[in-house]
């Protein structure tokens, strides 16, 4: 860290450090809302369909309430997403100036997807008690597809930054631009699969945690059981599938980003076979405070118990990422993901054997904790991905100092962004808390963003 600060004070642009901090705060805050845009419409569709097909009043009430929560989160996410769109040009002119033509198409499609999602969310909110039930239900499908397409386009940009393709640099000029190559690269498909499944983990565990907390307070009615079971079911499947996708994605790093892989594994030298280091930090250039499991590092990184894992000694020192931050974030993501996967398997085995895990307080407490743990795993995964790519904004094409603005006034922008996100966090908490309190008091017809005032039939 002292070296980083010294560099920021000397050779690095004056705006580099505040630009990094602002982007980290903005992305870390917005990504949770993006997960709800990807996964929540599908969960609402499942409970709404159950209500329509089975004439289940509990499921219909749950779908109506969730739609209002989705509207509030979408309204707040629209603000944070707009901030991010301006930040790309404001904070990183060295990226968006030369490579804007490469990234323009994915960002354009993301904007269109956002508007489609907003339109159908408004129609869905308006359609309660005003449209035929099955037609009203179908409005959720384009809403869900738009959320998925929009997130795919954003992920394609991030995947391009890690595995650039679709252009050539000739005499310092970007030429032969192929934006479709950015959208459909192999790195994009795998990265999106990892993020898409992760979104269902986050939303599923967070929503289930809300109803688990209610059951801990004695609310064990059908509404809370259904509100827990549907999102927890989605999260369970995602938690089991995610390690497989992550393993496939991680095995590519040995060839595409060896420095990031070495930081993940805390490997200072090339080892064959490589151990798996549990915990640990890099202290004075040597790994310390870790538990080594022989050969498993090679299996996780290369899919074989015998293949070598390249160490940081194969990478020039100036190209090393911040090793400790990358390693700790990666291990946090993997550790939480493994814990959640094991927990859901045990839960469903107990259900399969005829037991009711929800009758036990420790299980409900664990379900409540699973929500914030899933969010922490998501944030840790993004930290590992983004910090592990440093010092490159575009891998081996554009260094981060060359992409950042040299405007020292960005510190004021960073302060303003922090105040904005703090205000939106407080507003979201107050609004959602108020909605929950009024629902418990028996009020069902609450106003929501993008929707009309509801009049009881």
Compact description:
The protein has 457 residues and is mainly alpha-helical.
- Sketch the topology as an H/E string, one letter per element: HHHHHHEEHHHHHEEHHHEEHH
Please give the oligomerization state of what you see: single chain
User: Can you count the beta strands?
Assistant: 6
Shape label = globular
Number of domains: 2
Taking the alpha carbons of the first and last residues, their distance comes to 62 Å
Tell me the fraction of residues in β-strands, as a range.
5-15%
Q: Could you estimate the helical fraction of the residues in percent?
A: over 70%
Number of contiguous helices = 16
Spatial order of strands in the largest sheet: 1-2
Q: What Rg, in angstroms, do the CA atoms define? A: 23 Å
Mean pLDDT: 86
- Which stretches are low in confidence, meaning pLDDT under 50 for 5 or more residues running? 1-10
Which structural category fits the helices and strands? mainly alpha
The profile of the biggest β sheet is: 2 strands, antiparallel
What can you see in these coordinates?
This protein is mainly alpha-helical and 457 residues long. It is 71% helix and 6% strand. The strands form three sheets. The protein has a two-stranded antiparallel ribbon with strand order 1-2. Helix 3 runs antiparallel to helix 4, helix 3 packs parallel to helix 9 and helix 4 runs antiparallel to helix 6. The N terminus is likely disordered.
């Amino acid at each position: 860290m002292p070296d980083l600060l010294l560099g920021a004070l000397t050779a690095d642009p004056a705006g580099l450090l505040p630009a990094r901090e602002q982007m980290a705060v903005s992305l870390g805050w917005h990504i949770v809302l993006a997960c709800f845009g990807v996964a929540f419409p599908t969960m609402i569709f499942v409970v709404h369909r159950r209500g329509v097909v089975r004439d289940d009043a509990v499921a219909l009430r749950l779908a109506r309430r969730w739609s209002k929560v989705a509207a509030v989160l979408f309204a707040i996410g629209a603000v944070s997403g707009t901030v991010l769109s301006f930040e790309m040009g404001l904070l990183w002119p060295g990226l968006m100036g030369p490579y804007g033509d490469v990234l323009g198409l994915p960002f354009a499609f993301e904007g269109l997807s956002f508007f489609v999602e907003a339109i159908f969310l408004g129609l869905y909110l308006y359609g309660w008690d005003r449209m035929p039930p099955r037609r009203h239900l179908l409005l959720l499908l384009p809403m869900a597809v738009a959320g998925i397409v929009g997130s795919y386009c954003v992920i394609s940009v991030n995947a391009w930054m890690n595995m650039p393709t679709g252009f050539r640099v000739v005499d310092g000029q970007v030429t032969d631009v192929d934006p479709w190559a950015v959208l459909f690269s192999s790195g994009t498909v795998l990265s999106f699969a990892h993020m898409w499944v992760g979104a269902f983990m986050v939303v599923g565990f967070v929503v289930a945690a809300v109803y688990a907390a209610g059951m801990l307070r004695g609310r064990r009615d059908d509404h809370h059981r259904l509100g827990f079971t549907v999102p927890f079911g989605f999260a369970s499947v995602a938690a089991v599938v995610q390690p497989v996708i992550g393993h496939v994605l991680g095995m590519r790093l040995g060839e595409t980003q060896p420095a990031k892989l070495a930081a993940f594994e805390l490997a200072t030298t090339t080892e064959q076979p490589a151990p798996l280091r549990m915990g640990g930090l890099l202290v004075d250039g040597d790994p310390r405070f870790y538990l080594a499991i022989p050969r498993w590092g090679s299996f996780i990184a290369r899919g074989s118990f015998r293949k070598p894992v390249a160490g940081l000694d194969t990478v020039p020192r100036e190209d090393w990422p911040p090793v400790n931050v990358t390693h700790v974030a990666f291990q946090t993501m993997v550790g939480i993901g493994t814990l959640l996967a094991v927990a859901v398997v045990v839960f469903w085995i107990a259900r399969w054997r005829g037991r009711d895990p929800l009758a036990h307080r420790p299980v409900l407490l664990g379900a409540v904790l699973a929500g914030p743990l899933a969010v922490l795993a998501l944030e840790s995964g993004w930290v590992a991905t983004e910090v592990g790519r440093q010092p490159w904004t575009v891998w081996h094409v554009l260094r981060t100092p060359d992409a950042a603005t040299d405007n020292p006034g960005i510190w004021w922008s960073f302060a303003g962004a922090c105040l904005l996100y703090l205000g939106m966090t407080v507003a979201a908490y107050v609004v959602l808390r108020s909605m929950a309190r009024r629902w418990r008091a028996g009020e069902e017809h609450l106003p929501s963003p993008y929707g009309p005032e509801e009049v009881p039939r």
